[in-house]
Input
Amino acid sequence: MSWTDAAEAVRANPVVLLPIGAIEQHGAHLPLDEDALVADHVAKAISSATGAIVAPTIPYGHSHNLRGYTGTISLPQQLLTDLVVAVASELVRHGFRRIVLVDGNGGNLGATAAAAFELRDKFGILVGRVYPWGLGYALMRDAYENPDLVYGHGAEPELSAMMAMFPDEVHMEKATTPELKTYQGWTPASYIQASIPPHGLPGEIFWDFSDVCPSGVTGDFGEASSDTGKVWIDRVIGFCIDYVREYDRNTDHGPGNDRTESPSAALAAASLTNQKVMK
Output
């Protein structure tokens, strides 16, 4: 959009999607900017289906427990909160009062939740959020023989999703065997979890992931495929589309959202493309 396109669109009180990614390792076979790529891609897919506007992606996120891997760029959590609040505050200043965060990184969740509550306190707006990777873990379990075996960082279901969405960014010839190693007597179970005998439930411990996982990858690649990735797209992006439609329906006249013109009217008035992208 140009500034005049944005000025015309704001009159209809549209939903604005704010993608937030991360620059962090996902193993030798996947790119550092995967989370930013996916957040942007998912937001644009939502836009195409709903007419929501896509704000420019915030590429950096909070990935503190992955800082031991070269190339990871982690913002302090409070800085990410402040950044999201600052960007959203500018949107509100121009009249955009309905905002959904498309959060592409689990490490961002604390920061983006804090930002959403701060924006609620500051402006009285109701901020929404979708977390595609988390949705994938929940919605894809029946796509695998043993999801607990294949799920992991750099493995499923994100690997299949990347194969379907960004096949040129996947380099399986560089992939290393997923692994976890003991650390100072602890037996790791995940990023920040260790086994606590004799219980089947792990406990939390806050190490750098590189302390227990030299390759940066956990899970299993055996069931990864672009076909499974298409299932991820259908289920996860489908959920996100339905979420934004529900958010649109429930916030069109909600607190702080007193405009009456529908988003579809704005799209027709602005004569923009179906996918509304500010950048």
Observations:
- The first strand starts at residue 15 and ends at 20.
- Confidence is low (pLDDT under 50) at residues 258-274.
